[in-house]
Every structure is written in structure tokens, then in C-alpha cells.
Amino acid sequence: MRAWRVHELGEPGDVMVLDEIEAPVAGPGGVLLDVAAASLNFPDVLMCRGRYQEKPKLPFVVGGEVAGTVAGLGEGVTGFEVGQRVLALTRTGGLCEQAVADAAVTFPIPDSLELAPAAALHIVYQTGHIGLHRRAGLRAGETLLVHGGAGGVGSAAIQLGVAAGARVIATAGGAKKVEVCRQLGAEVAIDYLADDFVMAVKDATENRGADVIYDPVGGDVFDRSLKCIAWEGRLLVIGFASGRIPELPVNRALLKNCSVVGVNWGMYNLMNPELIRRTHDDLMALHAAGKIAPLVSEMLGMAEARSATQRLADRGTVGKIVINTTSTTTGPVA
To answer: What is the pTM (predicted TM-score) of this model?
Structure first.
């Protein structure tokens, strides 16, 4: 089968290779999947560079968030049947034609949810839902500031914030991305390339600041976010797309009586898997109600996966890119 693999670390455009490899075997506790669609996430870029906390052994198949159908069940697996439509986090990589996922991180999807958006839904919406509700306790009527609002992580957070009844302010780079934020439901959208988001947030909140700040960027964005957080605000640390891990000046936390809260969503799969399953059910209900819909900006064929991953690395994408693993050319996945 075809699979995009990394044999040496570096930029995705330099190190991703389309190989022919043997199809995987489900094994005990595993679900064999016919992968129809795989979405790209920034951790895929970091893994290519060798800069992610998880460092798979070389060579490894890129990606891991997929949607498709069950092709086989390993020993001890119950609750699934061959042909069932699912989304999953794979243990053998995602940019391939077949993959294996642990049954614990494989989730059924309704017929109303097409496979392409299903592949783009799990990681970013799970992260957003658990971050906003469990970690930040976001309440209706509060102000939520989302950084990187036009990206995969940010676009999910905007929709989830609106669904929770929050007033959403978003930042993005450039007029096109700002407009995407508005279309997603942000009441205020700020072009950080042209305007100082700190002053814009203060202006929009009558100098009060944001109650919850959703920060997947880190670096200078984190530093400046502490200047526009509200009294008893919660700043969610989602990731460090800027490349710099910031340090916390604890005097600011003291003065604002605010909290800086980590959101390591992946660890919940180990520490509290039942929460992940409940959150999945909540997200399926929100999708059925029309309150969330993954922003899939591009649907590409397998041949385009390498260049698409590099564009993600260069922060030149909007929303989520989904790869049709059954096709070499651009096209939909039902």
C-alpha cells in the first residue's frame, strides 16, 4: 500500500517520501481501517522536524487523525463491525491506505457526518471542548479571545465558543483570515499584522479584557495576552506554533488574579479515556444541531500531501487540510 513516510528528520517538503509498504495487521486490541481521509495537524510538522514530545522511530508514517471504515478487528476487540464508519487516532500513521488504531481511540460516526469533515474533527474540537469547558469553565456571556482563529485549532475554538454562548474575539494574520474568523462567528476579528490586538481587545471590552484566552501560538502572543486578560481570567496554553515557549511573569498572574492553564489533550487518552468518549458524544450532538462544522479548506489527493504539509509548516493554510488517501488528485470523499 502507499504511505507517506519520513526516513530522516527535517522540513516536511524535504523529508516526506511516498513509499510502497506492507499493509499493517490489526493485532490484539487493534482495529484495522481502510483509510478514506486523513487530516493534517501542526504536530505532524513537528514530528517531521523531530521537535514533538513524541518521537516515533524512523522511518514513520506521517499523520494519525483519520476517518474511514473498519476492515478488520484484532483479538479482544468488541463494539465494532466490519464496514462501520469511524474516526480514529492511528498507531501506525495516517497518510496511508490502511492503518491500525487502538479500539479505545476509535469512535463511531453517524451517517450524517461525511468522512472528510470527520477526519478533521477529532483532535481540534476535542482540544477546544475540553480546554474551554473542563479546563477554563467558560460561561455564557463571557468574552473569549481566540488566537490563530483561521487555523484548524482556532476555527474549532471559535465555533465552540459561540456554541457555548460566549462573546468571541479572534486574531488572525491578514484580511482573508480575518474574514474567515467573522464567518465562523467571531464578533470582533483583529488583524494582528496591522493592529495591536492588546489595545483592540481592551477597546472591545471597555478595558476589562478577555475572560478566557485560547492560545495555540505561544511566544510573543502569550506575553502580550497577559496584558489584555480580565480579572480572574484564564489563559489556556494550547501549543507553541510560534516556535518559542514563553516564560510566565508570575507577578502578572498575581496582579490580575488570573490562571494560566495547560491543555494537554493527548494525555486524557491515557489518564481519563472516558472523558474523551463523552466529549465525542457531545461533539456529535453539536454537529447534528448545526453548531459546529469543521472548516475543511482543501481536499487534496495523496500526491499533494507533502506540499500541503509544508504549507502548514509555513503557516500558509486556513482551517484544516484533508487528504483523500484513495486518490492521487484533488476530489471529495463521501
So the answer is: 0.94
Radius of gyration for the chain, computed over Cα atoms and rounded to the nearest angstrom: 20
224-252 pLDDT, tens digit each = 999 999 999 999 999 998 889 999 999 99
Residue 238 C-alpha cell reads as: 494550547
> Is 72 in the same domain as 187?
no
Q: Grid coordinates 497518510 are at which residue?
A: 95
Nearest to 207 by CA among 256, 160, 137, 259: 256
Cβ atoms of residues 274 and 304 within 8 Å: no
For residue 188, the one-letter residue type is V
Q: What is the C-alpha to C-alpha distance for residues 188 and 303, in angstroms, rounded to an integer? A: 38
Measure the CA–CA gap between 330 and 18, rounded to whole angstroms. 17
Domain coverage including residue 112: 2-121+294-324
How many domains, in total, are found in the chain? 2
CATH number at residue 107: 3.90.180.10
Whole-angstrom CA distances from 215 to 41, 48, 91, 176, 222 are 16, 23, 28, 20, 7
Percent of the chain predicted with pLDDT > 70? 98
